[in-house]
Amino acid sequence: xxxxxxxxxxxxxxxxxxxxxxxxxxxxxxxxxxxxxxxxxxxxxxxxxxxxxxxxxxxxxxxxxxxxxxxxxxxxxxxxxxxxxxxxxxxxxxxxxxxxxxxxxxxxxxxxxxxxxxxxxxxxxxxxxxxxxxxxxxxxxxxxxxxxxxxxxxxxxxxx
Length: 160
Description:
Blueprint: E1 2-13, E2 18-20, E3 23-25, E4 30-31, H1 39-51, H2 57-60, H3 73-86, E5 89-99, H4 109-120, E6 127-132, H5 138-141, E7 145-156
Parallel strand pairs: 5-6
Antiparallel strand pairs: 1-4, 1-7, 2-3, 5-7
Helix pairs in contact: 1-3
């Protein structure tokens, strides 16, 4: 078994959709980034890649590569999953914490969990997503951005 941790952060900005966990969330601002800037999926990808010692998403999907401009992070996650499968890994579970003062995410978490479980090719019961505020402290607390931490467990299959 291998454990991975991922972290990502993006600034909130005008004129972008807010996508978290592959779900579009109604909000007056979205996350700024080269792709769709889905911090939740980015943190999960980095946790998975870290557990497999496969570097990080910046190496796999550089932000100076126009192929990835505006791309759905769920598509990038599929590429990560394909690489993990090729290397003989499967996901055991993931646990995610989103740090955001606003918007409130409680009502969107079940849909995020479903999308993430499907993308990770694991049962829904192996995905946990939670959200917290930072009580007005720091850049997430002031509403400047959203951050996310993710941890995962990878299991080696017989292909290793």
